[in-house]
Specification:
Blueprint (H helix, E strand, L loop, with lengths): L4 H28 L6 H41 L13 H55 L6 H32 L8 E4 H18 L3 E4 L8 E4 L1 H17 L6 E8 L4 E8 L6 H4 L11 H6 L6 H11 L4 E6 L3 E10 L6
Parallel strand pairs: 2-4
Antiparallel strand pairs: 1-3, 3-7, 4-5, 5-7, 6-7
The structure holds adenosine-5'-diphosphate (ADP).
The site of adenosine-5'-diphosphate has 22 residues, from helix 6 and helix 9.
């Protein structure tokens, strides 16, 4: 066991004091008064002096340090009252320096996190304005051309109005995605967990996206015939969004004339895994970890051509994680990608 620093300090101080006083008295009595006092007296005397000074010094040091340290605690606690527990004021310097060090480290970490968040905020604002600028300028361009005279030509009028409208639609899509992401990030989103049939939901999303897929000559398939419902628990509306975003991506970045396959398999005793498999362009290893970030795209111009806001996967990840589930991506560049996510089983059954 380590002896407290204050004890060893008090020990040596009292040792010096008792040796000095006893020595002085011994010399004075011997040489000054020629007294011959027994050895036992001096032994007892030095013992008493030592004990007395040790107790006093120890007590005084503790009191002094305690008062000083309490001041430090109080002033530091002013900054953040929860960080320091007032009842645990210590007079042990080593513990105190450890605590102050920890306190400083925590503060540093807090500052680092705040800076990081500030960086994200700035980047996010920059991205948002950049995203909005492109379609806004497109709309403005067409409107100005119309105002400049193109209005009088029926052919151009229709064409330009149609294009301006496309720009507005794109703006609406971006704003909708932004709205969704801000709701998700402020935890404003209500998740209504209820049992629903995932097979039925995929079929519904397939129906809605059939025309989009046809445009790229892509076939929407299941890996096998699912004759029976597969009941899962979650917010059906949110999962419709998840499936839509993932399947739309598979169409956008899929191979023209290729196919998309949805596969539903057992993940573990309580969960199933939904896989969306495409045979498209795939994702290079270095991008895989980043595609779920807001506004991250592998190929910006290609994504914009396809009408993407760069928020689709960020929204998917948020929804899946808000349910306490996981999302995975496997991909081979130029071969295809598989996005999969887990879902809670509503009842025990075997696929
Ligand atoms: P975007 O609006 O750009 O599609 P997402 O967040 O949905 O935004 O996707 C981010 C990026 O991930 C896309 O720009 C694309 O490069 C890549 N990506 C997403 N899904 C796929 C996929 N199925 N195949 C290949 N790349 C994909």
């Amino acid at each position: 066991m380590k002896i407290k620093k204050t004890y060893s300090f008090a020990f040596f101080s009292s040792l010096y004091i008792s040796i000095f006083t006893t020595g002085t008295l011994l010399l004075v009595s011997y040489f000054g008064f020629n007294l011959k006092i027994s050895f036992w007296f001096w032994f007892l005397f030095i013992g008493v002096i030592f004990a007395f000074t040790f107790i006093i010094t120890q007590y005084r040091i503790e009191k002094f340090i305690y008062q000083r340290i309490k001041k430090i605690y109080d002033s530091v606690s002013l900054l953040d009252t929860v960080d320091f527990n007032k009842t645990s004021i210590t007079s042990d310097i080593a513990t105190l320096s450890r605590e102050v060090e920890k306190f400083a480290k925590d503060k540093q970490l807090q500052i680092k996190n705040l800076n990081k968040r500030e960086g994200y905020r700035r980047e996010f604002l920059g991205n948002v304005s950049h995203e909005l600028k492109t379609p806004l300028f497109t709309v403005q361009g067409y409107l100005l051309t119309l105002a400049d005279g193109a209005m009088n030509d029926k052919h151009f009028r229709e064409k330009y109005i149609e294009r301006a409208n496309k720009g507005v639609e794109r703006l609406i899509a971006i704003v909708k995605d932004l709205d969704m992401i801000s709701k998700l990030e402020s935890a404003d989103l209500n998740i209504n967990k209820e049992p629903f049939d995932i097979v039925n939901l995929v079929k519904g999303v397939y129906d809605l996206l059939e025309i989009k897929a046809k445009k790229r000559n892509i076939t929407l398939l299941f890996d096998k015939q699912y004759d029976y419902p597969i009941m899962v628990i979650g917010d059906e509306e949110r999962y419709e969004q998840v499936l839509t975003n993932l399947i739309v991506n598979s169409i956008k970045y899929g191979k023209i004339g290729g196919s998309i396959i949805v596969k539903i398999e057992s993940f573990n005793k309580n969960k199933i895994l939904i896989k969306i498999i495409d045979d498209g362009e795939g994702i290079k290893e270095e991008h895989k970890n980043r595609i779920f970030e807001r506004f991250y795209r592998v190929d910006k111009s290609r994504s914009r051509d396809q009408g993407g806001s760069g928020l689709g996967l960020a929204i998917v990840k948020h929804i899946v994680e808000a349910h306490g589930e996981q999302i995975f991506v496997e991909s081979e560049y130029l071969k295809g990608s598989t996005f999969s996510f887990t879902l809670e089983k509503a009842e025990k059954f075997y696929i």
